[in-house]
Each structure stands twice: as structure tokens, then as C-alpha cells.
Amino acid sequence: MELVDAPHSKCGTFGFVGSSPTAPTFLMNTYQRFPLELVRGKGCWVWDKEGNKYLDAIAGIATCSLGHSHRKLTNALNKQLRKIQHVSNLFFIPEQEDLAEWLIKNSCAESVFFCNSGAEANEAAIKLARKYGHIQRGIKNPIILSAKSSFHGRTLAALSATGQEKYHKNFGPLLEGFDFFSFNSSKSFQDLQEKIEKELPRISAVLIEPIQGEGGIFPGENDFFHFLRDFCTKNKILLIFDEVQSGMGRTGKLWGYEQFQIEPDAFTLAKGLGGGHAIGALLVKESANIFELGDHASTFGGNPFACKAALTVAKEIENANLLENVNSRGKQIRLGLRQIVNDYPNHFNEVRGVGLMQGLVIKEGSHLNSQIITRKTIEEGLLTIGAGPKVIRIVPPLIIKEKEVNQLIIRLRKSIKGLIC
Ligand SMILES: Cc1ncc(COP(=O)(O)O)c(C=O)c1O
């Protein structure tokens, strides 16, 4: 099969290119899918079934850290499959120990619990926060504070902690014991302070993303996060970071919390951890290491296959100097996006983000939205995704090369030009 670039579009159209979508009649209608069927990937590139080639700036939504079909990951997992794939957590699992050791040696945490996804990692964190409230602080009805416009996952507790009403609709009653404050309200901290005054005796934890992803790529402000750290320390409240999207090198540091030079008491991981394989984790410092025998469990969590995947990703981040790459490619993307803002001031007004977690913000009043643009970039052979209706999210694999970033910007510019000429 000949592998070709996706056909270029005509100005003003955003019609369908690539393989025609098959009708998934047996699947529940829960995803608004791109009209594409991807069948193969290599590095930062993916191909549809007709052989059209696309630069992947979605990476499984910030998940395929090493891109697609990475030689070391493929080899390690082939080997692991032939060795042993899954055993129950009732047995000692050396791959799990190796991964835990790497995570502990390279973070502020001292202990890890493994699960399968971001929502599950946050569920574990929420249970931990409640137990901490009960046993360490003697609170009968503990409250967890989280931020407005946050996203923590789709299971019921993670959903209850998510500060976006659109995700709550029709799923009430949600869990009680959550309240929300404005993210980055660093000017006055007024919103947070009001919550604190009202509820302080009941607050057992603050759960927060260091960089809000799904909510629109909002990097946390330094002052605000230092205020949070001091407030939590002073009041014996757990500060828990949701690093499901920001962790494992995505921001140019291994962990998002390093951006502020503070440490959380606990943090959660998933997405990039397994490089495309299902694994999540809750990591805790000594102050939060309170789970005991039988407190929590997961059948698949941390099985040998998933742990081998994550350990291979971790070692490659370390050995291939990927953090350096994330920083330089992140700067390059920002420059390109800023140029787009300069050239199209009626349609874009801001570039937000850190490392390889960048957002191009669409201006109020523009006829463009993230859905229109992400569909159009497909025609130019580029996969992008929205973070809400007004932000184009750029989260490519951590291995993306300079010339691929050039292509990314060229293709994005072309798509935008095609929509507004
Ligand atoms: C910050 C954050 N937390 C939690 C989740 C939920 O992760 P999962 O989809 O693996 O359950 C996501 C997913 O987008 C996320 O971005």
C-alpha cells in the first residue's frame, strides 16, 4: 500500500478526508469520533486504512509518550508477553516493584498504589483523603476542595471532584463532600479564602491539577500554588496533585509540581505513564501513607505487562534525555503558535501551556471553534484536539523532532488559513 500525505483541502471547506468511518452500530454512542480509522503508527505519525499519513499531535490524548511502535517499548512488551502477562496482586510482582522503585527514586513520594486509569487513580486519592480526614484529623464528614474548570475523570467520585457542570448533568446525585474554588485566583485568593473560612474544620484535602488540561490548558500560577501549599501545611490538610495529564515529563519536568518548586503530599498519574498502555498510580509521601491491608485493591492494577510498559517509558525519558526535548520542542511550538496569534488577531488571542502541553486560544467572537479547526487539520494531515470549545490542544509524543514541529505549525497554519480566507 502506498503511504501518502493526507490530501490538501480547498479554501473554506472542511469536508471529510481519509478513510470513511465505519458505523459502530454495536457501540454505545458516547464518543464524538473524528471521521478517521487509524490502522498503523510509527513515531509521531499515524496512517488511516487508505494509506493517508497524519502527524499526531494528540498522542492518544497526551498518552503515547514514546509515539507509536517505539522499538524499545515494542521489544520489551513482546518479551514480557512471552514471559508472563498477568498475575493477581496476591502475588509478589517484580515488574511492579521495579517501576515503584523508579517512581520513588525520581519523585517526592515514598510509596505507590497501582491501578489502570486516571479516574481510578483519583478514586484512590479521594478514598485516601477521606480516610486521612477521619483518622488523622477526626473529621466526621470530610470535604475535599477542588478547582472550578478542573477535570478528574468520569467515575462517580472523580466526577464529583470535577469542577465542570457539563460533566455532571443527568448523573446526580453526585457524591457529597466536595466543594470548588476558582483556579489561579492569586490576585486576592478571595474565593478560596471564603471557602476556607466557611469549611476549614471539615477540609481534609485539596485536589488540584498543576496545569488544567481538559478545562482549557491553564498553567497554575506560582503564587497561588505556594499559597495552597502553605495553607495545607498550616492546617494539616493533604495537598493532592492530579498529574494524570501533566506527569511523566509532559511539562518538561518529570512532574508538574516541579514547575512551582513545591511538593504535594500525594499525586496521581496515568496517561503518559504507560506510553499507551493502561496503568494509573497514586503516589504518597510519608504524611499520606495511610492505606492499610485491605483498604484498596485492583484486579488488573500494576500487572507485569503494564508495569513493564511504564518502566520502559520511564527509562527512555531518562536515557534519551526526553525532558530536554520536551523543553526545546515546547518552545518551538509556542513560537509557532504565537506567530499564528500575531497573524490572525481577530481569531486567536493567546497561547497557554508548558512544555508539550500547549493550547492555542480562540478569541471570543471568532466564528472558529475547536471542533471546526480539529476537523480541518485532518485535511492537512495533522491530528489536533480541543480542550473545550475555545482551545486547540497540542500534546504530541515527547519524542517529537524539530522538523516534525515545523510540519505541525505549517499544517496548522494552512488549516487556519483555509478556514478564514
Ligand atoms: C487531569 C486528568 N485527570 C483524570 C483524567 C481521567 O483519566 P482517565 O480517562 O484515564 O480515567 C484525565 C483525563 O483526561 C485528566 O486529564
What does this 3D model show about the protein?
The radius of gyration is 22 Å and the shape is globular. Residues 1-19 have low confidence and may be disordered. Helix content is 34%, strand content 18%. The chain has 421 residues and is α/β, with parallel strands linked by helices. It has two domains: 82-319, Type I PLP-dependent aspartate aminotransferase-like (Major domain) (Aspartate Aminotransferase, domain 2, 3-Layer(aba) Sandwich), CATH 3.40.640.10; 322-397 and 406-421, Aspartate Aminotransferase, domain 1 (Alpha-Beta Complex), CATH 3.90.1150.10. Helix 2 (71-83) packs antiparallel against helix 8 (304-319), helix 9 runs parallel beside helix 11 (402-420) and helix 10 packs across helix 11. The strands form four sheets. It has a seven-stranded mixed β-sheet with strand order 5-13-12-11-8-6-7, sandwiched between helices. Strands 1, 2, 3, 4 and 16 form a five-stranded mixed β-sheet that branches. It has a four-stranded antiparallel β-sheet with strand order 14-15-18-17, with helices on one face. The two termini are 35 Å apart.
Explain briefly what this protein structure is.
The protein has 421 residues and is an alpha/beta fold. 34% of the residues lie in helices and 18% in strands.
Name the descriptors.
alpha/beta, Aspartate Aminotransferase, domain 2, 2 domains, 11 helices, 18 strands, globular, binds pyridoxal-5'-phosphate
